[in-house]
Design goal:
- The protein has a four-stranded antiparallel beta sheet with strand order 3-2-1-4.
- The chain folds into two domains: 1-69; 76-133, no CATH class.
- It has helices at residues 2-68, 108-116, 123-133, and strands at residues 76-81, 84-89, 95-102, 118-120.
- It is α+β, with helices and mostly antiparallel strands and 135 residues long.
Length: 135
């Protein structure tokens, strides 16, 4: 009977030791994984903060650039009207002069500028343009 008790105690001790060893290993591994997980979270939070700071800096820089943008004043604008170049005041509504310059006879880059509205700063530039392209 003593042998049965001893064997039972030995088996019980082995099972308890194995269970203890396995649970310790499991919790140690879980602890290590948890630390790695926390480190990743901290790293991602730092990256997000950096990206947010970069985005805010870019937006701030864009706003500053827009506020510092100097608008070149212009008096006249050249537009196409019925295939001809028309000279308007800067408001794009008041006609200053109609010309006999055909838009299709102008260089392509100039045609594109006129289709979008070519800005002319002053009368001197306007008369130089008209003198160059009037036949």
């Amino acid at each position: 009977m003593e042998k049965k008790c001893s064997i039972r105690l030995l088996l019980l001790g082995t099972i308890v030791s194995a269970a203890f060893g396995l649970s310790t290993g499991f919790f140690a591994g879980t602890q290590k994984n948890w630390r790695t997980y926390e480190e990743r979270i901290v790293l991602l939070q730092q990256q997000n903060a950096d990206l947010l700071a970069q985005q805010e800096a870019a937006e701030s820089e864009k706003k500053l650039a827009e506020s510092l943008k100097v608008v070149d004043p212009y008096e006249y604008i050249l537009l196409e009207e019925n295939g001809y170049v028309a000279v308007y005041h800067a408001d794009r509504e008041t006609l200053f002069a109609a010309t006999d310059i055909l838009v299709r006879n102008l260089p392509e880059d100039l045609q594109e500028e006129i289709s979008q509205g070519k800005q002319i700063e002053n009368e001197e530039q306007l008369y130089n343009f008209l003198e160059n392209y009037t036949s």
